[in-house]
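ingest -> fold -> write
write: protein_1
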Amino acid sequence: MRAAPAEAPDARVSAVRAWVFDLDNTLYPPEARLFDQVNARITAHVMRALGVAEAEAEALRARYWREHGTTLAGLMAHHGIDPEAYLEDVHEIDLSPLSPDPALAAAIARLPGRKIVYTNGSRGHGRRITAALGLSFDAIYGVEDAGFAPKPRREAFERVFAADRLDLSAAAMVEDDQRNLRAPVEMGMVAIWRPARADEAPEPHVHFVARDLAAFLSAVG
């Protein structure tokens, strides 16, 4: 039986030399509620693309997210929707709730090794969000870099990590969605979970819980 996840970094984290960060609700607090905007735009896009009422579009949005990893993956599988137009539309959101995060920026800058962002959103969305937060990374990858296959599918991680030539034997994945940590753990990575909700409990595959990401990363080493 695996031990309970640690809430402070130990030698396993100190040995990491490749850091992979999720984007939404991981690099900024869920209280910014940016994904409320994205979800509303997704529902509106589904309404227009499929010609359905709001209630049906909202139900499809949620169902495809649960079953496919992203709503986009479900729309592509069942309706042949154009992913490029979808991504451009749903990520046209107001970023004014975000502001630079100097503490997190400093903590990430001090980490040893390579630092990348890998999001189920678009690459452009990742660039806009990280710029608004004042964060710098070696590379930013979006769902298009995985051939539109979404996390949590292992094939999606494999495509992005292969493209970046990451050494997974000394790598960590930082995520708010615990299902997106299962494949990285199977691939030998350290799993660092940044909870989006206070009432959510860690699942058995999680190695570390980082409730305050900047503080957690600042303690590495």
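write: protein_2
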Amino acid sequence: MDVVALDRIAVQEASRVVELAGDDGDWARETPCAGWDLRRLVAHMTAQHHGFAAAARGEGGDAAHWREPGDLREPARAHRAAAAAVLSTFAEPGAAEREFTLPELGGAFAGRTAIAFHFVDYVVHAWDVAAALGVRLRLTGEVLVAAAAVARRVPTDPAGRGPGFAFAPALKVPERAGPLEETLRLLGRDPQTWPGTGV
């Protein structure tokens, strides 16, 4: 399965769990992203979709494309539109061969590498949303194994992890961890603190 197909699966699953949020109580739930409630997390996800879509068009250096919406009254609707936009852009012929400028990650990347970053980010963010809502993800073993392979390639230098960076410091991965737990721990999430997600 190629990275564009993998990314589509992860984004669609993230969208499915976002759509499970109902009233304001759900949007105010704490998430595994420290200091962010579900509304803020989905605002971030929405902005990232727009930013990656812009990067695929050669416009990733424009900070305006990466800004979170200031007043997100309908988070699921805004996220749905952003997800559709990024999936449509990544599906364009030649998108994976373009160069993407990703300011958060410090520069320009080959398209396939950039889409792989987006893919693993949405496996993790799908889990973040699922953890906040207490539901399980529906991702196949093939997708989860691919996500773990990408997560292993993310630099673990502490100078580039933590507040203000894309990922939290990596956590120790238990010897018998499955691919989802490995991915989460490599990217700074502790699934044991969020029961109900099946990890």
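write: annotation protein_2
The domain at 3-67+74-142 is CATH 1.20.120.450 (Four Helix Bundle (Hemerythrin (Met), subunit A)).
The CA atoms of residues 2 and 52 lie 18 Å apart.
pipeline exit 0
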